[in-house]
Structures are given as structure tokens and as C-alpha cells.
Amino acid sequence: MVKVVNTAGTHIWARALLDGGSQINLITERLVQRLRVQKNIEYHRLGGIGKAQHASQHSVHLTIHSHCTTFKASWKFHVLSDVTWDQPSHAVDPKGLNLPKGVKLADPQFHEPGPIDLLIGREGFNDLLLGNILRLDNPKLLLQNTELGWIVSGQEYVRRIWKRWNTDYLSGLQPRTRWTAKRNNIQEGTMVLVKEENLPPLKWRLGRVQTIKPGKDGLVRVVDVRTKDGTYRRAISKICVLPGQKDDKME
After folding, report:
1. Tell me, what's the pLDDT at 26?
2. 28-37, 179-188, 207-216: segment of lowest average pLDDT
3. How much is the pTM?
4. Which one is predicted more confidently, 242 or 5?
5. What ranges make up the beta strands (E) of 48-187?
6. What is the pLDDT averaged over residues 217-224?
7. Distance (Å, rounded) from C-alpha 208 to C-alpha 73?
8. How sure is the predictor about 181, in pLDDT bands with cuts at 50, 70 and 90?
9. How many helices (H) and strands (E) would you count in the chain?
10. Does residue 203 share a domain with residue 113?
11. Which distant-in-sequence residues (6+ apart) come within 8 Å of 194 by Cβ?
């Protein structure tokens, strides 16, 4: 949790996610409206997992204050409708973590799912981290000291993030209906995931459509997909097209 100053000089509480892998900082449109800060027109294309693409049309400059220390910093944030899904993906029992007494958490409600308002990327990530690390009874979790307070981190949280991405994102890529009506045709060169019934989605192979096989009606229902392990012929229902790519439209 951090405090952000609005146009009236009032501190607004916001929930932030630290991401050392992000090259930029992000903020939700919802928080921008709460702060009533001026938005600057600035187009920025964002790339993510599976080459997914999004675009931010605006940016804002904010001053972030820690509620645990005297730390404050001013950074630019790019505006998106949403930064990510609620974190954590489900409630965690903090009693089972045996947190040390006297540790001042950056987010005292870290165990309760809630919306993320800000993502602080590499620009601020290095400035925020302090040297102290405490390992918890759970070998997959640890406490990292930061200028914002102590944060819970480790493999277990990463695993839950990937599990949630698997459920909400990959499952949404799978076709829900048969192609019985004219719609976008897949193109050669399209990046896809090859669905494997005996494997979880996170282990599906990434491939590129090499050849399309249109039917008599002009609709593509079968494709040849080239992966690092070879080329496979698959029905459209057995692949997931990754977003952010252009498809040909049937006229």
C-alpha cells in the first residue's frame, strides 16, 4: 500500500504491485479518476506474455509516499483500464505463515484478494528494495524489506499468479463455438498455442501457422503448425490464437 497525492493535496491510498521485469510504470484509469490528475496524451504500445499487445493513450506524473518510511518518489505512469487481476488470486491464512513480530508490512491486508491500482516497474523497483530478507516457515515464501515496508514474496506467489493467468487468460483463448458462420480466418504466420489434452495449458507448445487448409466454403478449419519440435496438422479447435495479431476477414 502506498499513498498518492491528489490535486487537492490529499493522500489517497492505493495498492501497488512491484514488477522488476516491467520497463514502465502503470496506473489504472480508476485511480486516475479518483486522483483527478491531469492526463498527458502519450501513446505507448505494451507487449506482454504470449506477445499480447495493449496500448496506453495517456500518462500521468505522480508522487508516491511510503506509509512506513519517509521515502517518496515522483514517477511517470502509463494509464490502462486495468493493470492486472486481483491479487492474491485467493485468500491466504496469515497465521499459517508465522510472520515475525514487529515487522511492518507494506500491505497489512496482503492476504486478502483486492484490485491492483499501480504497477511499479524497473524504474522504481531498484530504488525501493532494501537488503534485508527474512525466510518464513513456508520454504517457498520470504519477506523482502523495501522502502514501502516489508513485502511477501517468493515462488508460491509466482505460482499462484501463473495459475490465475492459466485459468483466466489461456482458457479464454480457446474457441467456444464451432466455425459454422463466416468470421475471421486465421492467417499463415499467426502465433498459436497447440492444445494438448494430456497437458496443462502452461505446457502447451508455442508455434506458428505454416499452412492453412481452407474448406470448400472458404473457411479454414485445419492448419499446419510449426513448433520447435516439428510441424503438426491440427484442427482449429485444437489451437489457441494468441492476441494482438491481425486476421483476414471473410467477405
Report:
1. 93
2. 179-188
3. 0.60
4. 5
5. 53-65, 72-80, 118-120, 129-135, 142-146, 149-153
6. 89
7. 43
8. very low
9. 4, 16
10. no
11. 204, 205, 206, 207, 225, 227, 232, 234, 238, 239
Do the Cβ atoms of 60 and 44 come closer than 8 Å? Answer: no
Residue 70 identity (one-letter amino acid): T
Please report where in the chains the cell 480508476 appears, as a residue: 30
Spell out where 6-159 has E strands: 11-14, 16-18, 26-28, 40-47, 53-65, 72-80, 118-120, 129-135, 142-146, 149-153
**CB neighbours of 48 closer than 8 A, spacing ≥ 6?**
54
Q: Is the dihedral of CA 144, 147, 150, 151 positive or negative?
A: negative
Residues 232 and 112 in one domain: no
Closest to 166 (Cα-Cα) out of 191, 140, 200, 199:
200
Is 204:221 a contact under the CB 8 Å cutoff?
A: no
Residues 22 and 103 occupy one common structural domain = yes
pLDDT at residue 147 tops 70: yes
Residue 62 belongs to a domain: yes
Domain containing 216 equals 190-241
Residues 88 and 57 in one domain: yes
CATH classification at residue 60 = 2.40.70.10
* Structural domain includes residue 161: yes
Number of domains in the chain: 2
Q: Is the peptide bond before 88 cis (omega within 30 degrees of 0)?
A: yes
- Report how far residue 19's alpha carbon sits from residue 24's, in angstroms, rounded to the nearest whole number: 9
